[in-house]
Amino acid sequence: MSVTYKLVDDIGVITVDNPPVNALSHAVRQGLVEAIATAQDDSSKAVVIVCAGRTFIAGADISEFGKPPQEPSLPDVMAAVEASAKPVIAALHGTALGGGFELALSCHYRCALGSASVGLPEVKLGLLPGAGGTQRVPRLVGVEAALDMITAGNPVAASEAARLGLIDEVVGEPLQESALAYARGLVAHGAPLRRVRDISIAPDSYSNGQFDAYRARLNKRMRGQEAPQRIVSCIEAAMTLPFDEGLKKERELFIECRESGQSAALRHIFFAERTAPKVVGLSADTAARKVASVGIIGGGTMGGGIAMSFANAGIPVRLLEVSDEALERGLKLIARNYSITVSKGKLSEADAAARQNLITGTTDYQDFAGLDLVIEAVFESMDVKRQVFGQLDKVCKPGAILATNTSYLDVNEIAAATSRPQDVIGLHFFSPANVMKLLEVVRGEQTADDVIATAMKIGKQIRKVPVLARVCYGFIGNRMLRQYAREAQLCMIEGASPEQIDNALTTWGMAMGPLAVGDLAGIDIGYKARQALTDEQKGDPRTYCIADALAEMGRLGQKTGAGYYRYDPETRARSADPEVLEVIEAQATRMGVTRRAISDGEIVDRHILALVNEGFRILEEGIAQRPGDIDVVYVFGYGFPSWRGGPMFYAEQQGLARVYERICQLRDTHGDANWTPAPLLEQLVRENRSLADWVRQPA
Ligand code: 3H9
């Protein structure tokens, strides 16, 4: 039974028990309606709704979306609760989210533990609160605060929720006893049936112009997304229409959202993020190794960011550098990053100091002797990395996990520099490592199962999204990125400007365009890497001649004030630079390319389908465990719009046959070298199968 009802003296107690997060499944909805009905006819004087387990209801059951709806609907449940002739009190703990918080808002009173938080995160799933949230929240907190809360979707701590009037009382543990006492107090005082629906919003509290301005701001902040705009319309309806009509409008727009491709994509990413850490073929009883101390080699931007990630999770870190000066620089960089976070009001000074104290420096490998996990973040050179691992092999205790942060190199070759390849693994962080959520975990051929299990567990512990990859050049993310970056270079030499390429892709939804990213990372990085290669290894010169020419002019990107763009030395604002166009034209002439007008559509197709095609190869070779993992890599590591679901979901949503056909067209125009359709894509189209079907039956 996921919902039970009992009388505790004169208070009816409804308990929802539907692990793991008490989602409002069909059984829960039905149970709630029945329990409220029961309470109407017994001797109870008030009713308390409480949840078992780690949290109050965390929302509608997302896995039910996309299936035929079953009665009672969530709005029916809310109506039944609100219409109760006896006061209903929600007792909140954990995270009361989405439909869960909407249920609380339909109750007549709300109490919560101080550790609880409430929120309407639907927008993060491409939805809007569809059970009265958009109508009730503005009645409690006003229009502007409701707009902010519901379009951002972030949780609000109990104390703040009480200040705003979203909850009535913050209570102590144990929750049920406190809630019973609170309910008895209300009964004793003859507290009225206080229905949020009856609160009116002053019709002139927010003007049409203010709504329009809010919409315009959202258009910038959440470019391309439909749900935030619909949320504004719902809140506008809350102000301008009677409650029931407002609810009708909310329902209509909720259904539009629920049926939208954007919501399907965001729901896919929600589940893909949670599936990614699960390792196929790893027995459930594989125990992770203990990780209570970590060593990082390299105190640069990357090493420092990794150190902060562990310190932020309360794990002590030893940071190793080659000299006292380098160490001091590294520790200063970390201190600076923490003080920036404090100055932004995101962390208290005391917490920042506590975290910083967890990071201590050394220049002596011997200090790593007792550590559980060591991560190398040194210069990207096989020789250097092998030397480091040889050292680690000598000093680290047996069973210590030895990890490399390489972004391209062969983890097996690095592991072979030790006498314990079973303990070696890749932990590929993304810069800035203390901010970016993606962690590629790269298993070598000999990496032990418990080392993989530990990496996935520790990844979650430091609040990253760990995704497992096998060894290949660039693993999942950077291997695909090479194809994407290639198209940026080719589109430029064939006729597009850097700003046209970047604009086409950011308008499509990418967080940044590839050339702006190139300027941020530094054009010299690829240039230096190419210096070590033969012409044959470098491949088609059209894919790097512009970058090389800019690097040789000293235009290395943002750090030199000029790269594909020019940067204002004061504000760092970027602008197009005619000099770059001259470079592009000169290189085109040198390569014998006649430049032409290229449409934005072609730019988008070429970049995104280059990712997709390589993604299919990665899947087929077993480099990634599942298509959703590739999507998670791109959304959390490369600024791919989450509302498009990642490259593989995007391909599926477009239809694999259409994607295949377009790739064939590109092959016919641009040649086989870059555009041969991936065999797996070809096979699925031939067999008229979807990726989802292939996941179920990979053969
Ligand atoms: C909504 O409410 C719409 C209404 O307005 C209107 C309707 C008409 N459903 O994240 P975790 C699963 S929309 C189904 O690892 P945590 C999750 O997949 C909803 N399943 O735990 C995972 O499964 P598994 C609005 C759900 O402690 C397991 O629970 N609500 C749901 O780190 C544990 O999840 C939201 O958007 C769900 N609603 O974080 C809240 N939620 O173990 C979404 C979770 O098999 N949920 N699961 O991989 C969350 O934000 C987090 O899960 C939460 C717990 C903070 C609650």
UniProtKB/TrEMBL annotation:
<keyword id="KW-0560">Oxidoreductase</keyword>
<dbReference type="InterPro" id="IPR008927">
    <property type="entry name" value="6-PGluconate_DH-like_C_sf"/>
</dbReference>
<keyword id="KW-0276">Fatty acid metabolism</keyword>
<comment type="similarity">
    <text>Belongs to the enoyl-CoA hydratase/isomerase family.</text>
</comment>
<dbReference type="Pfam" id="PF02737">
    <property type="entry name" value="3HCDH_N"/>
</dbReference>
<keyword id="KW-0511">Multifunctional enzyme</keyword>
<feature type="domain" description="3-hydroxyacyl-CoA dehydrogenase C-terminal">
    <location>
        <begin position="603"/>
        <end position="689"/>
    </location>
</feature>
<keyword id="KW-0576">Peroxisome</keyword>
<dbReference type="InterPro" id="IPR006108">
    <property type="entry name" value="3HC_DH_C"/>
</dbReference>
<dbReference type="GO" id="GO:0016853">
    <property type="term" value="F:isomerase activity"/>
</dbReference>
<dbReference type="Pfam" id="PF00725">
    <property type="entry name" value="3HCDH"/>
</dbReference>
<feature type="domain" description="3-hydroxyacyl-CoA dehydrogenase NAD binding">
    <location>
        <begin position="294"/>
        <end position="469"/>
    </location>
</feature>
<protein>
    <submittedName>
        <fullName>3-hydroxyacyl-CoA dehydrogenase</fullName>
    </submittedName>
</protein>
<keyword id="KW-0413">Isomerase</keyword>
<dbReference type="Pfam" id="PF00378">
    <property type="entry name" value="ECH_1"/>
</dbReference>
<keyword id="KW-0456">Lyase</keyword>
<dbReference type="InterPro" id="IPR001753">
    <property type="entry name" value="Enoyl-CoA_hydra/iso"/>
</dbReference>
<dbReference type="GO" id="GO:0006635">
    <property type="term" value="P:fatty acid beta-oxidation"/>
</dbReference>
<keyword id="KW-0520">NAD</keyword>
<keyword id="KW-0442">Lipid degradation</keyword>
<comment type="pathway">
    <text>Lipid metabolism; fatty acid beta-oxidation.</text>
</comment>
<dbReference type="InterPro" id="IPR006176">
    <property type="entry name" value="3-OHacyl-CoA_DH_NAD-bd"/>
</dbReference>
<dbReference type="InterPro" id="IPR018376">
    <property type="entry name" value="Enoyl-CoA_hyd/isom_CS"/>
</dbReference>
<comment type="similarity">
    <text>In the N-terminal section; belongs to the enoyl-CoA hydratase/isomerase family.</text>
</comment>
<dbReference type="GO" id="GO:0004300">
    <property type="term" value="F:enoyl-CoA hydratase activity"/>
</dbReference>
<dbReference type="InterPro" id="IPR036291">
    <property type="entry name" value="NAD(P)-bd_dom_sf"/>
</dbReference>
<dbReference type="GO" id="GO:0070403">
    <property type="term" value="F:NAD+ binding"/>
</dbReference>
<dbReference type="InterPro" id="IPR029045">
    <property type="entry name" value="ClpP/crotonase-like_dom_sf"/>
</dbReference>
<keyword id="KW-0443">Lipid metabolism</keyword>
<dbReference type="GO" id="GO:0003857">
    <property type="term" value="F:(3S)-3-hydroxyacyl-CoA dehydrogenase (NAD+) activity"/>
</dbReference>
<feature type="domain" description="3-hydroxyacyl-CoA dehydrogenase C-terminal">
    <location>
        <begin position="474"/>
        <end position="567"/>
    </location>
</feature>
